[in-house]
Amino acid sequence: MPYIIGFGVLGSLGQLCMTRAYGLGKALTTSALSYTTVIFSALLSWLLLNDTPALSSVLGIVLIIVGGVMSMVFNSDTRRTS
């Protein structure tokens, strides 16, 4: 039972932090960074549970990283339009 309460408290805290991040930061950057939860979930699963990710998972992680980098590079405010 204490685990369930801890999960609820930490989940609520995480949601509040994400809501605050969307309010303070750029939505594009925040949403790109929020997809890193998939990467960290797979990494923790591999390290703690010895669960080897499937090839489709690895390809998905690579796509998330590439998409996040591309969205930050191509939509930066420092880019010149001339």
Can you put this structure into words, describing what you see?
With 82 residues, the chain is mostly helical. The chain has helices at 2-24, 27-34, 36-49, 55-74. Helix 1 (2-24) runs antiparallel to helix 2.
Give a topology summary.
Layout: H1 2-24, H2 27-34, H3 36-49, H4 55-74
Helix pairs in contact: 1-2, 2-4, 3-4
Helix content: over 70%
Arithmetic mean pLDDT: 83
Number of helices: 4
Total E-strand runs: 0
* Unreliable residue runs: none
Give the helix/strand class: mainly alpha
The CA-CA distance between the termini, in Å, is 60 Å
The largest β sheet comes out as: none
Our estimate of the beta-strand percent is: under 5%
Gyration radius over CA: 16 Å
Shape: flat
SSE series: HHHH
Can you give me a brief rundown of this structure?
With 82 residues, this protein is mainly α.
Defining key terms:
single chain, 82 residues
